[in-house]
Amino acid sequence: MKKHFLLIIFLFAVLSVAGQQKIGYANLEFILRNMPEAELMNKEITTYTRALEEQISAKQEYYQSLLQDFVKKQEEGYSETLLNTQREQIISLEQEIQNDINNADAKIAALSNERLEPITQKIIVAIDKVYEEDGYTYIFNSADGTGNSIVLKGPENANLTYRILEELGVQIAEEEE
Q1: pLDDT digits (tens, 9 = 90+) for 115-172
Q2: What totals of helices (H) and strands (E) does the chain contain, helices first?
Q3: Are 130 and 139 in contact (CB under 8 A)?
Q4: Contact, 68 vs 102, CB < 8 A?
Q5: How far is residue 81 from each of residues 73, 76, 88, measured CA to CA in Å?
Q6: Cα(80)–Cα(78) distance, rounded to whole angstroms?
Q7: What CA–CA distance (Å, rounded) separates 4 from 58?
Q8: Residue 146 in contact with residue 1, Cβ under 8 Å?
Q9: Phi and psi at residue 25, in whole multiples of 5°?
Q10: Backbone dihedral angles phi then psi of residue 126, each to the nearest 5 degrees
Q11: CA–CA distance from 109 to each of 46, 49, 112, 147, 163 (Å)?
């Protein structure tokens, strides 16, 4: 809350000295959400996530079958040597499954970052072009990373969201952000 208050005070201070300055804002989350590349990225990440989940699930099923087989052999009185070998295999597989689960999030995050980087660069290039061509002094993101609005009120002609989308070649009907 304090961070938002300081940001609002900063914006008012900037606006008060911005007589000759041109200030714009855009909703970067909305821009990203409407880019075809982002949609493809999300589909790829979803597919990758499912593949990782299926791999883990298959190992968990195999683990359960090994465990059931172990219990059956134990009840049937198999030798301790055989049971110890199978016990070690079960423990090893259990650790492997846990490692796979722990690494899955990191793998998904790495893929997300890798796929998001060129999209982000494309947005930055478009913002830079709008900034230069239209003579802006400042262009702010109208929302923070959690979707809360930073720009509480501003002239609609300073909203550059659709102008940036146009620069990116993304055509959408204007709607409520």
Answers
A1: 999 999 999 999 999 999 999 999 998 887 776 777 777 788 899 999 999 999 998 8
A2: 5, 2
A3: yes
A4: no
A5: 12, 14, 11
A6: 7
A7: 47
A8: no
A9: -145, 155
A10: -65, -40
A11: 12, 10, 5, 20, 30
Q: What is the DSSP letter of 173?
A: -
- Residue 116: what residue type? L
Q: Which two tokens stand for residue 10?
A: 């900063």
CB 111, CB 48: distance < 8 Å? yes
Do residues 100 and 53 make contact, with C-beta atoms less than 8 angstroms apart? Answer: no
DSSP-derived 3-state class of residue 139: strand
Q: Are 31 and 164 in contact (CB under 8 A)?
A: yes
Match 């589909």 to its residue by tokens: 43
Nearest to 7 by CA among 157, 156, 145: 145
